[in-house]
Amino acid sequence: MNPIADASPAAPAARPDDGPLWRADPDGSALQFAEVEVPLDYEDPDGEHITVAVGRIPALDPAKRRGVLVAFNGGPGGHNAQGRLMPLRLAGTAVHEVYDLIGFDTRGWGASAPVLREVVQGKAPWSSRPADEDFAQIAEDVRATEEGAARAGGTLRAHITTRNVARDLDRIRVALGEDRISLLAYADATYPACVYGTLFGEHVDRHVFDSSVDPGGLWRGQYMAQAEAIRANVDAWAAWVGERDGVFGLGGDGDAVIAGIEETAAALHAEPFCGLDRTFFDNIVGNGAQHRPLWDQLADTVRGLRDRSHAAVEAAWLFAASEWEQPAPGQTHTSGLVEAITAEAEWPTDLETYFADMRLFRERYPYGNGVMRAQPWVVAFREDKPREPMTRVTRERYGPGLVVHAAGNPMLSHAGGAAMAALVDDRLVTVEDDGSNEMFAVRGNAAVDALVTGYLVDGRLPEADVTVPGTPRPAVGPARAAGSGPRLPDTEHVKHYLTEYRAAARRR
User: Fold this and answer.
1) Mean per-residue pLDDT for 81-103?
2) Residue 44 belongs to a domain with what CATH number?
3) What is the model's pLDDT at position 400?
4) What is the mean pLDDT of residues 265-285?
5) Cα–chain-centroid distance for residue 203?
6) Which domain holds residue 197?
7) Which end of the chain lies in a sparser environment, N or C, as judged by fewer CB atoms within 10 Å?
8) Got the DSSP string for 87-115?
């Protein structure tokens, strides 16, 4: 099977006479919910069907209404997405005045035929710098995860493909009675959005890809690029700290700061402090460097851990916390969507390919658990594959739009966003010196919000690519004020910032 195929959309569905049956949100929000029935297998349209859960908030000003705006986010395939709740993110904004806001749980997620996998407890030590002798067990843990995903996912997961997500979206369009829809896709959801445009471009009005995937790097290349982006953030932070050695005392330039970090990492590996070992420390540095406004707090935390100060411990744990959802103790099953849909892409089957990359990443990209981005993935062991390949993305049947991307986004590298903009010939909006993921109506960046709103509402596109300022770095000079005592991290400030940042993408 060709791993990347050209567009071949399914025949359009007839619109149901009565359209979706909308009902109020039982939690009392402005949302209305409905289900749209779609074929499990579009090659067998009269066979088994599933339902896709849809959410809607009608336009605030019916007289100005210009159509529907479908907004979606989440990891590959829609994992961990807001799905049918996405309209709440945009409720009350200027785009809400003129659009019905639509969200949906993609097939395999939420209330749309969720695909599951068994929770498997790994046996390999959790390490940001695993030893060679642990590689085989890491691979066996991944193999066990795939076997559990196959048992729990059954025949459903073969139908969890990006093309089917795009076809489902077109069924939603038909059910809504719309000839064209506008798309606002965030993060990994930019891939199904551009696949929809490839298959059904004549039905696309306006589109914004916010924090885009790299269309040429799906999926292993994108994961590995995360490690590179994390390291770039760490190096930028280290250079900034080095320019302020009189304040932080971590070294006089970026190289000296990194050397000091490595010394602290080695010390914590030999003798952990308050439960914090080298792996936690590597994650503190990698996670913290993403957030420019906390660069001073990260420096104070790193210095505190170097000096084994208990005053730095709470802030350290805040920086170390993972943003990824983890199964609860005793939970036997969890979502298997990412494991299902990433199998569309080609992955190496030779474990030595992964192990060689792990050795490189262990040395070059230890921060933010970079080695994990290079280790074996379940697809290397998968026996059944999705019934369709990746799609060769084009933009032949709809107009240009916007790609918005922060320069320091560690989850989706800016190079990938630039590649998407070049491929579909969109205007690229770069958010300078910013590590945020998902920007519009999320991070409070006035320039981004104005550009996206102007395009979605009035059709105004910049004449060329645009660069806008990101969130400022801390206002810290090169020298400490006379008579000031030792610097300590402001734990409450760190907690407030990280809580707000992580909640912003899920705020309702």
Assistant:
1) 97
2) 3.40.50.1820
3) 98
4) 99
5) 26
6) 4-113+160-215+393-469
7) N
8) HHHHTTSHHHHHEEEEEEPPTTBTTB---
